Give the backbone structure.
Amino acid sequence: MQNIHILVVDDEAEIADLVELYLVNEGFRVTKFYDPGKALEAIKNTTFSLAILDVMMPDVDGFSLLGEIRKLHTYPVIMLTAKIENIDKITGLNAGADDYITKPFHPLEMTARVKAQLRRYLRYNETADLQQDIIDFSGLIINRKTHECTLYGKPLCLTPIEFSILWLLCENRGRVLSSEELFERVWGEKYLESNNTVMVHIRRLREKMQEPPRAPKFIKTVWGVGYKIEK
């Protein structure tokens, strides 16, 4: 696991140390910062496998760090927050966060969420059978083997979650996938009816694809049912 390099940023030393302890015990390599300002240089100069960022920090908050990561990298980002307001969660998801953990948390739950995100991320970055690794239609090319996606020849910088959603929709072209099915297949967790996570990620995908909200070419909304990409 030493080739898995995780960034941890939290101004509460006790929390950062606890997270580091449990991740190191799992065999992960960890780079830890109490000062978010100092983490910026590491984000720019180092490629990590995953980042864990506290939301509320002085001077540079977790959302700002998340924004810097998403300018350069697609690896998963988990946000730590003392409270979870829907607007904060939507802000983070829109900015490219993959998961949230609310403080106080159980360290074993934290490590389980880290492993789940890494499995999803590494699945799309490791060698797989070529048979169904590339989908190419209407100017959109998505390669599951290399985790690369281009639209009309221009690369799309997608997070692992965004890539998974787009791949599923492309793989099931012509079929409507409900928010529940998308969530349970991508996140691997039970869907709650009040969950708007899928909607936020679909909106983010459309923005990256520069899809007009009222008449998207690729990802269509089937009201009351779900989402689909037509053949």
Residues 34 and 187 are 29 Å apart (CA to CA).
